[in-house]
Design goal:
5 helices; 68% helix; TRAP_DctQ; 0% strand; DctQ; membrane; cell inner membrane; cell membrane; 183 residues; mainly alpha
Length: 183
């Protein structure tokens, strides 16, 4: 299947990868700081105190960003788990319509999630909500990543839904696995 907005989904995938790299970098820096502190105390000196305050909180928010921003990229590349035990046994024509139904349900659920994430984000901005941890991080930052990821995912679902619907209506007998968004 050809996705017209593939560069946008790639961007989401790259941002998700960046979030994971930042998590790895921060945790590595924390570990190295602890090693330096141990070496300093073992040599009779004082702890230097190379610690990253709020590391668990920051890592958690970055993990949220990675999870949501990677949704569309993973979908476009066929990486989401699909249970095709029943659907895989159908002939092409019925399978096309079942795929349209499944994509419709996924799109409706994605739009529902996006709608409520939008209002959650709006409330966080309106009430200037911050996290409860050591660092007072504004909650609109991770919530924006969540909303952006869900919007990208809904766009990918809508593209797959439209392409699958066109095939289901015009030429259902030619429907293949590749037409349902899998590569």
């Amino acid at each position: 299947m050809t996705y017209r907005l593939r560069p946008l989904y790639q961007l989401g995938g790259y941002l998700a990868a960046l979030c994971l790299c930042l998590i790895c970098t921060l945790i590595t820096a924390q570990i190295l700081g602890r090693i330096v502190d141990r070496i300093a105390t073992a040599l009779g000196g004082d702890r230097i105190g190379l610690a990253i305050p709020g590391l668990a909180e920051i890592s958690g928010f970055l993990l949220v960003g990675a999870s949501f921003l990677g949704l569309a990229y993973t979908f476009v590349h066929g990486g989401h788990i699909r249970v095709t035990l029943l659907v895989g046994r159908l002939s092409p024509a019925p399978r096309a319509f079942v795929e349209v139904l499944c994509l419709s349900i996924a799109l409706i659920l994605g739009l529902y999630l996006g709608w409520y994430l939008y209002w959650l984000l709006a409330d966080s901005i309106a009430f200037n909500e911050t996290s409860y941890g050591l660092l007072r991080i504004p909650l609109w930052i991770p919530q924006s990543a969540m909303l952006a990821g869900v919007v990208l995912f809904c766009l990918a679902l809508a593209e797959a839904w439209w392409a699958t619907l066109v095939i289901a209506v015009t030429r259902p007998a030619t429907f293949t696995i590749d037409d349902s968004g899998q590569e």
